[in-house]
Amino acid sequence: MSDGTLDLWAVPEPPTPPSVKGSGELAALTVGQLTRRIRSVLEGQLGEVWVLGEISNFRNPGSGHLYFTLKDEEGVLNAVMFRTDAARLAAPLRDGQAVRLRGRITVYEARGQYQIQVAEVRAEGAGTLQERFEALKRKLLAEGLFEAERKKELPVFPERVGIVTALQGAVIQDFCRILQRRAPGIRIFVRGVRVQGVGAAEEIAEAIGAFSEENQVDLLVIARGGGSLEDLWAFNEEIVARALAASSLPTISAVGHETDFTIADFVADLRAPTPSAAAELLSRDWADWRAEVAGKGVRLERAVRQRIAWDRERWRSLQANPIFREPRRAVARLGQRIDDLAEELGKGLRRAVVQRRRELESVGARWENIDLRQAVAHRREEIGHWEARLRALGPEATLARGYALVLDEQGKPVRRAAAVKLREKVAIRLADGTLQARVEGRVAPPAE
């Protein structure tokens, strides 16, 4: 162009040979210069644009600026919405939301990436895959289909395993290979289905239902390799979720890669990160079982030998006991011991009777020396003295000496003048009655 700017949409002209400095070096732009030139071209020629797409990778840091990616089937576009523009949003943004954006195309020079600086966001309506995913997830969660209480335990020793997957591809081959290596005695029953496209969800649900009705396997696996959200969508359909929830068999969902999550993962009794991991989870290597059984056999044999040796030693000890060699002498000694104990018991009883008789005679002698009338009169006199002292110290006697008791509106004694507000009602209790008064002021006590 005549003004020297670069038109990215113009028909390219033949390249001009680079200028050469006197020293022979080619003239070059710095990265920053080139980036600023690209930014100038984009901002100058595009200006404001409206863009349709779906929000993903949404971030809302503490700065108040919003960062996300706008995507569709053909590409992605980085987007930023600064705090002042974000404050005017009518509703918060979220991943999976279909929107129409107004903004300016610019370049973030620090990363050399072009992006749209968003000024306005309008919702484009529901219906995207991510929104459908979240809506179904909320619905099934509210119905309790994800609850841990309804999950079934997987059998420890499954003998027959059913798998619902595509017959083509590496999934079924890897699954069978791992089970053949780890637990070759497990029988595998396969129902081939489409795992992608129109009608796939119906086929998957029908296969799950057939396995459940036949009840010929110990557990059921639904499996598929990795893919995009669209590729895995059959496992996000409600019909598949309902079939898993209704299955009488323990179920494992092994769909996609480790980072992929589907509705089937939440409803199944167990989620495996990959189909190969599902084969690992449902089986234990038979070599491990053999080693464990062998170890338990060794420990059992050792325990039995130790028990036999202990019992033999105990039997020898019993054989050497004199009671078995001369039982009559042992019985005679026990009879003598019984006689001694009986004699000691008789002596103890007689000593106890004599002691109790002496204590009874002592108590009787003390009661004979006590004058009950004099004791009662003495106690009555003491009670009268205490009663007189209590009356002298009580509030009635204090009031009779000319003092007064001030009570607040709740009937509690007032101990400090500051505790009563001005114009507050108080009651002044005297010896012969109570006066109702209102506080008009406070007077400080005289200085000492």
What is the fold's blueprint, element by element?
Layout (H helix, E strand, L loop, with lengths): L30 H16 L1 E12 L6 E6 L4 E6 L1 H4 L11 E11 L4 E11 L5 H14 L17 E6 L4 H13 L4 E6 L7 H15 L4 E6 L13 H9 L4 E5 L7 H5 L2 E2 L3 H8 L3 H35 L1 H4 L1 H42 L3 H22 L1 H6 L4 E3 L17 E6 L2 E6 L10
Parallel strand pairs: 3-5, 6-7, 6-8, 8-9, 9-10
Antiparallel strand pairs: 1-2, 1-4, 2-3, 4-5, 11-12, 12-13
Helix pairs in contact: 4-8, 5-6
Can you walk through the features of this model?
This protein is an alpha/beta fold and 448 residues long. Among the domains are: 31-125, Beta Barrel (OB fold (Dihydrolipoamide Acetyltransferase, E2P)); 152-284, Rossmann fold; 395-438, no CATH class. 43% of the residues lie in helices and 19% in strands. It is built from 13 helices and 13 strands. It has a five-stranded mixed barrel. Helix 4 (170-182) packs parallel to helix 8 (275-282) and helix 5 packs parallel to helix 6 (238-246). It is flat and about 130 Å long. Mean pLDDT is 84; it is low at 1-22.
